[in-house]
Amino acid sequence: MSACALACAQRANPKLSEQIDNYLKKQAAEAGFNGVVLVARKDRIVFHQAYGYANFELRIKMKTDHRFKLMSITKQFTALAVAQLIEKGAIKETDSPGKYLKNWPAKWNAVTLRQMLNHSSGIPDLINEWAAAWRPTETESLETFLEQSKGVELSFEPGKQWQYNNFAYTVLGILVGKLSQRGFGDYLVQSVFTPSGMKDTGYDKVVKGKDPNYGEFIGPVLVENIATAYQGEPGKLSWTNPRLHVMGGAGFVWSTAADMFKYARALLSNKLVSASSFARMTNQTYLANPEKKIGYGFGWLVDRNLEGKLVVRHSGGNNGYSSDFAIYPDEQVVIVVLTNTSYADPGAVRGQIARLVFGIKQPDPALL
């Protein structure tokens, strides 16, 4: 973010900007907060600041344009891609994935795309097994993996329970890539990132190469200007290098706070999907029991808190990165918290900042 842009953001509401900055400085001093925070209302950024280090070893200061791996926030983009294909009539949310994947296990035929989107499919979360089986030819690798999984039973009857599932979203991403004939990552670039103006957003890739000393290899493509990830606790950190290409639709996107704001604006202005589709994505899930409602839609956690304000959001965390991205649609407020430390609690930080934004007094002392 330029100095002018930051000054403009501060002039928009100097008191609020100062309150947020004071809170985050306290968090940095007392809890080791390390990352980037952006707050916006409608089309105006009211706060955008960086704290701590992008790389502790080299003492590289964090900047607002540093990139972070979003981990499970990726699921929003995957669900959005599915919603776009539904709008185009290419698929239906009531379809079984077996309609498009030839080796889809017969024992999973009752599962629908909708249930995979809202984590009520009953498919076991086979993400670790998939990671071990992954090959660069993803669609073919998935078909082989599905053939090998034909004897795997569902964990529960589809639609009857809720269980968070990374593997289901990985499958959804590969399915989007297959149906679009572009590959899932390229689909996101062309149909989500570019239309939103997200020039600092991409996805983890792999490259085949040859080292003169060690021969051929397959490894992750380097991402420029990305904050290094750390696990541990303040003062006792260990560097980590998450390789997320195998996660695909469950967790392989990286971005900046400013780009996530652009994404939010594109969603709220119906540039990516219609208002009705976005409303569908951010509806809470009703299971087979009509009395049982789950606060998760299609790639979004859905809740009403802070005196009943609607918030749709998602968090993402693993291998050192820990982040939270939230939209308060009625007020068109966006809060992005991106960190590169595993000990961070970005959801709590976002919640406290929301209290400041909405002027809600008597905050939870545990968040101060």
Please name the defining characteristics of this protein:
368 residues, 34% helix, 2 domains, Beta-lactamase, disordered N terminus, globular, 3-stranded antiparallel sheet
Report on this structure.
The chain starts with a helix and ends in a 10-residue tail after the last helix. The longest helix is centred in the first third of the chain and has 18 residues, at 14-31. Strands 2-1-17-16-15-14 form a 6-stranded antiparallel β-sheet, with helices on both faces. A 3-stranded antiparallel β-sheet has the order 5-11-6. Strands 3-4 form a two-stranded antiparallel ribbon. It is globular and about 60 Å long. It is built from 11 helices and 17 strands. It folds into 2 domains: 3-65 and 229-247 and 256-367, DD-peptidase/beta-lactamase superfamily (Beta-lactamase, 3-Layer(aba) Sandwich); 74-195, 3-Layer(aba) Sandwich (Beta-lactamase). Helix 3 (74-87) packs across helix 7, helix 7 crosses helix 8 and helix 8 (184-196) crosses helix 9 (257-268). It has helices at 3-12, 14-31, 74-87, 113-117, 127-133, 138-148, 166-180, 184-196, 257-268, 275-281, 346-358, and strands spanning 35-41, 44-51, 53-55, 60-61, 68-69, 202-203, 206-211, 215-220, 229-233, 236-240, 253-255, 285-286, 293-294, 301-305, 309-318, 321-328, 333-339. The model is unreliable at 1-10 (pLDDT under 50). By secondary structure, the protein is α+β, with helices and mostly antiparallel strands.
